[in-house]
Amino acid sequence: MKLRKRISILLLAALTVMLSAATPVSAYDGTSYVTNGTSERQYVPDSYVIADIINNIGDPENRQNAFKKPLDLFIDKDDNLYIVDSGNSRVVKYNADHECIAIFKCPGKAFKNPQGIFVGDDGDMYVADTDNNRIVHLDAEGNLIEEFTNPESDLSTGDVFTPSKLVISETGYIYVVRGENIMAIDGNGTFRGYYGQTNIGYNLAEVLTRMFASDEQKLFVKKRLASSYVNLTYGDDGMIYATSMEREEGEIKKLNAIGNNIYRKYKTVGNTLQNPIKAWIDNNILKAVVAGQSFKFGEYFDDNGMYMEPLFADICVDKNGIVTVIEQHTGKVYQYDQDGRMLVAFGGMGEKKGTFTRPVAIDVDSKGNLYILDQINANVQIFEPTDFIKCIHEATSTYNNGDYQKSYDLWRQVLTVDENYDLAHIGIANTYYKQGEYTKAMDEAKIVGDRDVYTLAFDKYKYVVLRAHFLPIILLALAIIVVTLVLIRLFLKASNKGYWEFISDKSSKMSIRRGIAYSFYALFHPFDAMEGLKWNRDRINRLVPFIIFALAYVVRMAYLYVVHFPLASIEIEDVNPWFELVKLLIVPISWIPASFMATSISGGESKIREITFASAISLTPFIVINLPLMFLSNIMSKSQKSWYGVFTALAYFGLFLVLFIAMMVLNNYTFGKTCAMMFMSAFLMLVLWLVLLLCYVLTGRMIQFVISIINEFRLNFL
């Protein structure tokens, strides 16, 4: 009964922490904020203010006044604004003072649901006349020059040409959004290929289908397609910036001349078999629980706390390479620097100024003002940057231009306004790194938990120290190796002695010293150790397993505080001792009753006493590996994370292996039956967790019910 009570307490503690970790973000209150790729918002001083709103064309010459279903806008080099007033089949032009100066309707064949526009430096307009299946080229006065239809090509013939968004490159190529690709057309209307398709990765099921399925079966196999593009723009650096529905690399892309995305990525697209757990989570509700553990464009949760996948309706890039996107579902504006780090977010859904009903387009003028088109409200809101965000923009651009001292001064200025603005510390860390002050760079990066910048500085610092003190470091390393070998020898000797003393001395029970030595002997001789438990179960010291559990917990907590910062999986201030206890012991502790129940109904011979001891032994690989690893990590960084991860994985593999051998030896099972019983035990563990979870929920409801009754009684009778 005591053991079951301990298990219940551990599982309840784990559930409490998980539920608190998944608490949704608070409702948006109308201010600017940053998220740094997590689900937690950090509010910052206002970054943009409303400068003007354009609701109509000013009614020149008594023409139709209001917009109707506007779908796109564009700002040319002279800050003239062009709005694609799709419902009225026209393009409306404003000057830099937001005065309507021209209205263009296509000569001859009228526009039909135009959805996109691009204006060249010469004032020529290229309009995506979507429902007329063409791109119309007009001069600055609105005269028809030419039109482009579906180019003749084996790759494009047969597909309906419905251009929606387009840009014109410096070479005169027309790039048009076309589903999963961007189509390239030259000035003569000739097809020049598809551009920027996302890698869809390798799929084993598809390969096997091609190899073994019949021709009839292959007809029913759905072809896998890459994620579709949503919108695009052309940057001053000659790159195409685009938004897409792609969830693996990231929804925001910066495409170079050959169509490769060189912007910040979520991860590398690879074989779906390499990460089956992630693939399963991405399609289940558990993604709301694990959200916030890695970088993401936009946010994990909307203002109501619901998990969301962003739909960036449009994108713009200013002259300094600052990227701004508008998210259609939430009406949020997200801004990123040249490396894909969030600078600020603002906006939201609503009817008041600064919010939107259905934002569909965004662009930026030469002064940094943002123009955002709302389709439902049929207006354009102009946002003027504050001094705070201007300072941030200048700090990022001066850094990219190589003026590190000025960038440093500007970031310091940002911190005087908001000392908690994380990106300022990252910017300062980068300037320190570029100036060769690696220890200062590490200190700044550590303040905001940026392991990437810390790793860059640490690797350089490590190299500098190694060059300056090569001989002493080599001698120290040799001394550490010698001492380690001696300690390993003594460790093996002590564990062997403890095992043989217990096996040979039949007259006494296991002492604590012998029990601990016996546990570590099992690391190298697991079959002999399990046989010894099986035939000497009555002499096992019941206290030893709990000492091993406690020792493993101490090692885990010490590891969290000693492990090198770039390799730490959790910030020190976020460490929860109860949660760490549950994470460490939930499997070996719950395996005890689950294994006993599984073996009891299938001819097993093991008893609770030796199962408990074997469960404790399963944590000895964790202790032996993590104890030296926490100290060794301090000469390693994130760049060695893959090698570091191998040792961490070995600890958990050792746990499984010890439990497997214990199941086989203690119950005298065959290999096949052992596998079956391990699966049965795992199933019973899940059932146990679900029962405890249900008890937790019902207990919580019962407590709430009792509290409500007490409150009602006090309200009415006291």
Can you put this structure into words, describing what you see?
The protein folds into 3 domains: 2-22 and 524-702, no CATH class; 48-270 and 291-385, TolB, C-terminal domain (Neuraminidase); 394-468, Serine Threonine Protein Phosphatase 5, Tetratricopeptide repeat (Alpha Horseshoe), CATH 1.25.40. The protein contains 19 helices and 25 strands. The strands form 7 sheets. It has a 4-stranded antiparallel β-sheet with strand order 3-25-24-23. It has a 4-stranded antiparallel β-sheet with strand order 4-5-6-7, with no helix packed on it. The protein starts with a helix and ends with a helix.
Please describe the structure with a list of short key phrases separated by commas or semicolons.
718 residues, alpha+beta, Neuraminidase, Serine Threonine Protein Phosphatase 5, Tetratricopeptide repeat, 3 domains, 4-stranded antiparallel sheet, 43% helix, elongated
Give me the CATH fold name of the largest domain.
Neuraminidase
Largest sheet: 4 strands, antiparallel
State the end-to-end distance.
41 Å
Oligomer designation: single chain
Short description:
Helix content is 43%, strand content 17%. It has 718 residues and is α+β, with helices and mostly antiparallel strands.
